[in-house]
Amino acid sequence: MTTTTHLLRSRRFLPLFVTQLLGAFNDNLYKNAMVLFVVYSIYNSEEAEAQFSAIASGLFILPFFLLSALAGQLADMRDKAKIIRIVKACEIGIMIVGGTGLFLAWRGMATESFAIPLMLTALFAMGVHSTFFGPIKYAILPQHLHEGEVLAGTGLVEAGTYIAILVGTILAGWIPIEVAAVGVFLTAVVGYLAGRHVPPAPPEVAAEPLDWNLLRSSVVLVRNTMHDNRVFLAIMSISFFWTIGAVLFIQFPPLAKNVLLASKEVASLFLVIFSIGVAIGSISINALLKGRVSARYSPVSVIVMGLFVVAFYIVCRAWGYHAGEGLMDVGTFISQPLAVPLLLSLLGIAVAGGMFVVPLYAFLTTFVPKSQTARTIAANNIVNSGAMVVGSVMAVSLSVAGISVTDQLLLSAAMCLVSAWLGRKLFLAEQQALKV
């Protein structure tokens, strides 16, 4: 804990931590306020609700697939702190657009013809914002932190991200939509002010011309990054993890409403429990590994995650009919006999997931030259986002095919086995490299 406390007091880390925390908070306050309002106040069909949730997730993820190569080039060849300030300034404008969409939806003014498209446009733009910030938040750590601090810093960034998701998700489920419209704008302003205090992070290599051909630059970046077997395995493991996460997050709102007969506050509670769990897992794995970057515990962590997904599925299938009128509020939901096993299963999924993914991100930032760190993270984001878009499309397709959101949970459990296999191969490659 000494390293963690020291980092949180250091200007080398704290402004970046706060900027990232506020960005993650704003992403989730906006996205969840929008999705929960549409699912609970506009649509009345499980299929339509699941499709909207998947479309929203897909739009947010798509920029990572399209623009990560350009983002990685910029982050490695320009001052990272300057890029942060530009990106956070853009967030203010994006949230003016998104907040306007939320306000119009609240007023019921041209909801489907104008307000929803406006909200989805802002969500896509926030995806662009996160695409350009994403490589920096990890790549800047080896530049500002000492070697023994990188795993702790990565764990703090990951834990802080999920704490921010937690708070944003809670507020999205509980505050009125018109308050959320103002809140996202104010948060963007504070995030910009925090970003101005991030210390300079000049490029480690001489600036080169940027490749503006998005397709070519993405292919070249991924190909050049994947030649190292360990980096390839780490990226593939993370990609399967986030595919699982995308499917789960898409399922939560319609599952809470249509299977558990619970209110949007309960759907928000699910996301809160998930966020707490990932934060716990992120901090715990640093203690287990004692600051050493290794995939040692990744295979068993994701297998445990899969077992908890199966447990969550079993409890959902056994969920009894709620005889009361309307959707259950949080208090009524918690009083149900299977509520505690359901929430504990969800917590277990998240804790194990955090323990799986954090060392892999630290691996990507420490096993490549500092001059290539941002592009390595960008290549990871391209593959991750492609996998998550596939997960979103699969979720939509399964809903259209009439497969219930409950049965779709088994898909997530099956994908955990693939992640475990990849994590095991990564650990073996890591051990082999130590012998050379």
Automatic annotation (TrEMBL):
It is a multi-pass membrane protein. One of its GO terms (cellular component) is plasma membrane. Pfam families: MFS_1. GO terms for molecular function: transmembrane transporter activity. The chain crosses the membrane at residues 50-71, 83-106, 118-138, 150-171, 177-195, 231-254, 266-288, 300-320, 340-364, 385-403, 409-427. Keywords: Cell membrane, Membrane, Transmembrane, Transmembrane helix, Transport. It is found in: Cell membrane. Signal peptide: none annotated. This is MFS transporter.
